[in-house]
Amino acid sequence: MERADFVAIPVQDLQRADEFYGKTLGLDRNPNSSERWVEYELGNVTLALVSPEAMGPDFRAEGHQMPIGLRVADVAAARAKLEAEGVEFQHETIVSGVCHLASFSDPDGNRLQLHRRYAPYRDGSSP
User: Is residue 97 a contact partner of residue 109, using CB atoms and an 8 Å limit?
Assistant: First the structure.
């Protein structure tokens, strides 16, 4: 295997999810996306919004149980911007001793997390 190409995110309403990931989160939409399959590029992996229209009528969005960590330059600033857009966070920002974490969900309940590691790695290199 070479790398992870994409993470599939189940959604019930593709247009609503497209608006959330594109406008609210400000992610870069892949220009090759279609009306049935929408992708957002994060540099190292693609988030693919998967809807009932693309997967069939029995498809149900149940949300990721573990969050998808989204690296940001400043968790506090990114959180403030999203809160201004109406995004609700599940708890206060966590300072873990190595990173800052702030958890929220998309409109379909998929868990997302703003993340920034601030502590150096064991080898002394910086994140």
Answer: no
Q: Which two tokens stand for residue 108?
A: 């379909």
Residue 106: the pLDDT is 94
The domain segmentation of the chain, as residue ranges, is 6-117
* Closest of 109, 114, 71, 110 to residue 91, by C-alpha: 114
Q: pLDDT (tens digit, 9 = 90+) per residue, 58-114?
A: 766 666 677 899 999 999 999 999 999 999 999 999 999 899 999 999 998 899 999
**CATH topology (fold) of 6-117:** 2,3-Dihydroxybiphenyl 1,2-Dioxygenase; domain 1 (3.10.180)
Cα(first)–Cα(last) distance of the chain, in Å? 24
Q: Are 47 and 39 in contact (CB under 8 A)?
A: yes
Can you name the residues that pair with 50 across neighbouring β-strands?
Answer: 10, 37
